[in-house]
Design a protein that fits this description.
413 residues, alpha+beta, BirA Bifunctional Protein, domain 2, Rossmann fold, 8-stranded mixed beta sheet, 5-stranded mixed beta sheet, 16 helices, 16 strands
Length: 413
């Protein structure tokens, strides 16, 4: 017996009965993002590995543990684990810095990370996201947060919580890193292995740890005193204050979370997450922030930027199931040639219609029509001889016989 080949662990088929949910996510994204002036960009699924090592950061779990990387023609290639780095690469390469600021872009598509599959998280997963280039003012941060909230509300999601924090700039953040290291030094041996590795390379990432023993350490009063301190410089504090003013004016409720640092090295100043209380412990549906140094770090001009990404699988898990959209009509006939001809006439006029290619019995065809269509178009011997069609409304059971050229009008009434 031939061995059955199954889908790889951490990947999932999106089946026909599920795809309408995806269409809704994509349709709403196009509608809402266009309203804010964002243009769609589509970047390659794979890039040179250096892009992510330099862009995402070689101290992150993504680069150290989770990337799908392979060699081809003596070059290291990586399936994209996230899309901000790719969008920034495209922004630089295609000279978008010459465009009038702000440059507003959005994307959707598959990403790849080798991690333990769990609810709403796969090894091949999909993200929808936005990036804004060229605006340093906190108004840009507020707009992308407002855009995320509007998009989620357009999907019917209301049980949301916005968390914000400021990481400061590289200058003021360095002093904060040293304070974190100093206060955690006595606890070093009690930290998890990942946190011990991050201690020297990127101590702020320790605050993002999800291990319970580490959380208990960070909750100690002497450590909380450092975490809750206002370490950011005057300029960064002013930017953060402006952001909160904008959010207040927009009636966006938010919570300040000093432990919020995000998992990528390129963030500075504003970071934020939007969470849903319906997802359990892994409850973030949107994450983003400001990354003013990334364009320059990847070879472009010094350009402020801010953006976010959402996992589409997680969004799907929060939405009610959508009933598949029904066909406008289903042709019931034991004359395939006549049914085919009528179907093509209707399709050429924009009608969604099918007929029975298997030529089953009338009763079976009517049974299927009642499940998949709004109208049954009955094309029996009498109708064919008279050049007519019997049109049955499957929601009311009313049936009338009309001329063939009147079928479209009857369906569209």
């Amino acid at each position: 017996m031939t061995k059955l080949i199954k889908v790889m662990k951490g990947t999932k088929d999106i089946l026909p009965q599920e795809v309408e949910m995806w269409h809704k996510l994509e349709k709403n994204a196009l509608e809402i993002f266009t309203r804010y002036g964002y243009k769609e960009i589509r970047t390659p699924i794979f890039e040179v590995t250096e892009l992510f090592a330099r862009g995402v950061g070689d101290t992150t779990d993504i680069v150290n543990k989770e990337m799908y990387t392979f060699e081809k023609s003596d070059r290291s290639i990586t399936l994209r684990p996230e899309n901000t780095a790719g969008v920034v690469r495209s922004f630089i390469e295609n000279g978008m810095a010459r465009l009038s600021a702000p440059v507003k872009l959005w994307y959707k598509g598959p990403m790849f990370r080798y991690e333990r599959p769990q609810a709403g998280r796969q090894r091949q997963f999909h993200q929808v996201g936005v990036e804004m280039f060229g605006i340093k003012d906190a108004a840009a941060d507020a707009e992308v947060i407002m855009l995320a909230v509007d998009y989620l509300k357009s999907l019917g999601l209301e049980d949301l919580e916005v968390e914000i924090n400021s990481l400061g700039c590289p200058k003021c953040r360095e002093e904060y890193k040293n304070k974190i290291k100093e206060v955690l030094k006595p606890e070093f041996e009690n930290l998890c292995e990942d946190c011990q590795n991050r201690y020297e390379k990127n101590p702020l990432r320790l605050l993002d740890c999800k291990v319970d023993t580490c959380k208990e350490i960070f909750a100690k009063p002497q450590i909380q005193k450092v975490i809750q301190s206002d370490f950011i410089c005057e300029e960064c504090a002013s930017h953060y204050k402006d952001l909160k003013t904008y959010l207040d004016r927009l009636n966006i409720k938010y919570v300040e979370n000093k432990l919020l640092v995000r998992g990528l090295d390129y963030y500075n100043r504003t970071v934020f997450e939007i969470k849903s209380n319906n997802l359990g412990s892994q409850n973030a549906v949107c994450g983003g922030g400001r990354y003013d140094s990334l364009v320059k770090n990847l070879g472009g001009e010094d350009t402020p930027a801010v953006g976010w990404a959402m996992g589409m699988e997680r969004l799907n898990s929060l939405l009610p199931v959508i009933e598949p959209e029904k066909l406008d009509a289903y042709i019931v006939s034991n004359s395939p040639a006549d049914a085919f001809e009528l179907a093509q006439d209707l399709r050429s006029n924009g009608v969604k219609v099918e007929f029975d290619l298997a030529n089953k019995k009338f009763t079976k065809q009517l049974e299927k029509a009642s499940k998949v269509a709004k109208f049954a178009l009955i094309l029996g011997e009498d109708e064919i001889k008279a050049g007519k069609v019997s049109v049955k409304n499957l929601s009311t059971s009313q049936q009338v016989t009309v001329e063939r050229n009147e079928v479209i009008n009857k369906i569209m009434e």
